[in-house]
Amino acid sequence: MRLGYFTMPVHPASRNPTETLREDREIIILADQLGFYDAFVGEHLTDLVENITSSMMFQATLIHSTKNIKLGTGTTNLSHLHPVLVACHAAMFDHIAQGRFILGVSPGALPSDAEALGIFHEDRNKMFAESIDVILKIWESKAPFDIDLPDNRFKVSTKLTYDEVTNTGMMYKPYQNPRPEIVGTVVAPFSKGVIAMGEKDFHPLSANFLYDKWIKSHWDNYVQGKANVGQKACPLDWRVARTIMVADDDKVAKDYGRNSEQSPYRFYYRNLYHKLRKGKRDAVFSMDGKTPENPVPLDEILDNLVIAGGVNEVVDRILALHEQVGDFGELVYAGLDWADPVLARRSMVLMAEEVMPRVNKALGHTRMDRCSACQSGSQPLCKT
User: Fold this and answer.
1) How confident is the model at residue 384 (pLDDT cuts 50, 70, 90)?
2) Structural domain range at position 355
3) CA–CA separation, 314 and 326 (whole Å)
4) Distances (CA, A) of 266 to 14, 36, 106, 235
5) How many domains does the chain have?
6) Is the residue at 131 inside a domain?
7) 3-class SS at 222?
8) Within 13 Å and on the Cβ side, how many CA atoms surround 100?
9) Continuous H helices in the chain
10) How deeply is 264 buried, as exposed, middle or buried, from its count of CB atoms within 10 A (0-12, 13-18, 19+)?
11) Better-scored residue on pLDDT, 367 or 378
12) Helix/strand/coil (H/E/C) assignment for every residue in 81-93
């Protein structure tokens, strides 16, 4: 099982963005040094708590500050940009990073972003679906471009201006062939979008703010999507994010990760719950999958979603999660504000150097060379 990293990120609005952006960079540089497989960064335009406005621009600053970690947008909000921009910028990033790039995509969920861009009343899920189809078509096609997909608002043509002498009217293809890995963050229980991801060979990342009992619904739908196109789903392509705090002392971990009023984990979930509750998307915090009539107590959310403790307890909780949901290829560590840099850094070190080696030893592998879907040898070895 790989170890990955994801951050929205979420910082108190009172903090200086110059400092938080520097902190966010330093965390990913540390993740690279510790051997994390990948790092995803979110983006929002109109949120002072979530300080990164362009995940691709931010990640580009880390290409030459890191050596091995794959850098992912987490996500590029496709309703905010024309697909030509996304296709061209992603291809350029992929070349600069020489393949250390993952394109994470989503419609863009923050209402204030949509309002600021003048698309508040648009169907942003439809815009997302239309955009990703055009992005893929650009990467698959040769110039001159003449892309006019049915029921799709994005028309892309360079027929009038194509010139082989000056090489205009053309666009670079990505460094990775045929394209970078495409990942979608999944939030809702039983999300139908995961079926489409399986059909398109995109890979799901189950969000860290989804209760454990709903996670397997994502895998079941991904399996269905793969089956719809005659393929078997590979667990190595499935990422599961969790909110984790591990420390040398169990009480310190629980105080920092949950109990203290100054806990950045408490701040994170208080902020997130308010947003989801306001947007009537707080079913993720219920045990029946329905939008709760009454507010869910913050302590109940923290008890269900934060894994906090010493190394042994965190290992046991991760193994229990694996027992509940089955094989998955990557555990994604959710990054929060570094209210205490020493404790936050130590948590990441312990995850990489003690927790994950013990988890993989208990599961009987240092890496998953073949998933259960591939044991028969009927399809190629799973990617790691």
Assistant:
1) very low
2) 2-374
3) 17
4) 16, 25, 26, 31
5) 1
6) yes
7) helix
8) 20
9) 17-34, 55-60, 83-96, 111-117, 124-140, 193-200, 212-228, 250-254, 264-278, 298-305, 311-325, 341-350, 356-363
10) buried
11) 367
12) CCHHHHHHHHHHH
Q: Of 138, 7, 133, 136, give the one whose Cα is nearest residue 71.
A: 7
Q: Which residues contact 92 (CB under 8 A, 6 or more apart)?
A: 172
The answer to whether position 379 is within a domain reads no
CATH number at residue 188: 3.20.20.30
Q: In sequence order, what are the residues at sequence separation of 6 or more whose Cβ sits closer than 8 angstroms to the Cβ of residue 355?
A: 246, 311, 314, 315, 318
Contacts of 364 (CB under 8 A, 6+ apart): none
Determine, yes or no, domain membership for 384: no
Q: What is the pLDDT of residues 293-309, one digit of tens each?
A: 999 999 999 999 999 99
CA pair distance 19, 55, nearest whole angstrom: 17
Res 373 pLDDT > 80: no
* Cβ atoms of residues 221 and 357 within 8 Å: no
Q: Which two tokens stand for residue 61?
A: 């600053």
Secondary structure class of 240 (helix, strand, coil): strand
Contact 271, 110 (CB under 8 A): no
pLDDT above 70 for 71: yes
Residue 203: beta bridge partners?
Answer: 183
What is the pTM (predicted TM-score) of this model? 0.95
Classify 99 as helix, strand or coil: coil
Confidence bin at 341 (pLDDT 50/70/90): very high
And the tokens for 33? 């040094």
234-248: burial string, b at 16+ Cβ within 10 Å, e else = bbbbbbbbbbbbbbe
Q: Is the pLDDT confidence value at 240 over 70?
A: yes
